[in-house]
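Notebook, bench 3.
Goal today: get a predicted structure for Pyruvate kinase from Pyrus ussuriensis x Pyrus communis so we can plan the truncation constructs. The sequence was checked against the plasmid map this morning, with no discrepancies at the termini. Length recorded as 153 residues. Pasting the sequence as submitted so the record is complete.
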Amino acid sequence: MAIHMIESMINSPRPMRTEATHVANAVLDGTHSVMLSGETAVGAYPEITVQTMAEISVAAEDSINYMQLLKTKMEAAPMPMSPLESLASSVVQMTNCIKAVMILVLMKGGSTAKLVARYTPSIPILSVVIPEITTLFECSCSNAAPARHGLVY
């Protein structure tokens, strides 16, 4: 992802049209994140810049047809699928059908969440790393083991 996506906002409260298009196209092309640098570090309008980039990104995401995107990715997937791959794609398809608001992935490592993300769900994925998965799930908070994954929204 290129930096200085809306560089004109260092000195102006509005981005140039080409910069807004650049941000939207990055989202439509499937980027997983966009970044601001000088626009917020030394810019005159850091808060407006963040709000503007967020608004452009959300508007672009709202225009994506996630069902069609999933269908395209399913057609391109190697067949036969592994059981884990099949589960990941089915989770994304199911969440689209039931209008879920989040996918919760419990795992020992990071590969399961990456596999689900490959099918581009329209909702956030919250991954929880459990070092040892047992039949009993207990939740506790301490600073002994900091979170390995986070959700920023």
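Residues 7-62 form one domain. Residues 46-62 form the longest helix (17 residues).
Flagging this for group meeting.
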